[in-house]
Design brief:
The chain is low in regular secondary structure. Helix content is 15%, strand content 10%. Strands 1-2 form a two-stranded antiparallel sheet. The protein is elongated, with a radius of gyration of 19 Å.
Length: 143
């Protein structure tokens, strides 16, 4: 984010932002993570290079591999009762949630840049599309 970015005219287009819907059968669910009919972008396991796919965290959907569990647990035992206290750890910022909307921007350059250390859930639908599009690019093309 540049020092004078607040001078740029930004048009917030919130039309056609749709939530992800579930597919009808398990075969479609395994092949299509984000429903093509309700979003402009579709993430498929075969569309993401395997060396990248194994590094991603998914908080829901058919490829769920991350669960936020209690990091600190404490148990106090009284005479006739037990009190258990647990605290959840910080949520994984890179965890991809398939329930969040994704929208292809009309102009990628006009999409506001994310914060310095963003989480996937804090990104706008257009920023999520840019991120998922970037994830689908093979590593060989990064150089």
């Amino acid at each position: 984010m540049g020092l004078f970015n607040f001078f740029k005219d930004r048009v917030k287009d919130k039309t056609s932002v749709a939530a992800v819907t579930k597919t009808k059968n398990a075969a479609d669910e395994a092949n299509s993570i984000i429903d093509e009919k309700s979003t402009a972008f579709c993430v498929r396991p075969n569309g993401i290079p395997q060396e990248i796919l194994r590094l991603l965290w998914f908080s829901d959907g058919p490829m769920k591999n991350y669960t936020n569990s209690a990091k600190h647990k404490s148990k106090m035992i009284g005479e006739d009762f037990i009190i258990e206290v647990s605290f959840m750890g910080a949520e994984e910022p890179s965890s991809i949630s398939l329930a969040l909307p994704v929208k292809e921007p009309t102009n990628v350059e006009s999409v506001e840049r994310p914060q310095y250390f963003p989480s996937y859930s804090s990104l706008s639908p257009q920023q999520r599309w840019i991120y998922l599009d970037w994830v689908c690019v093979p590593i060989l093309l990064w150089t």
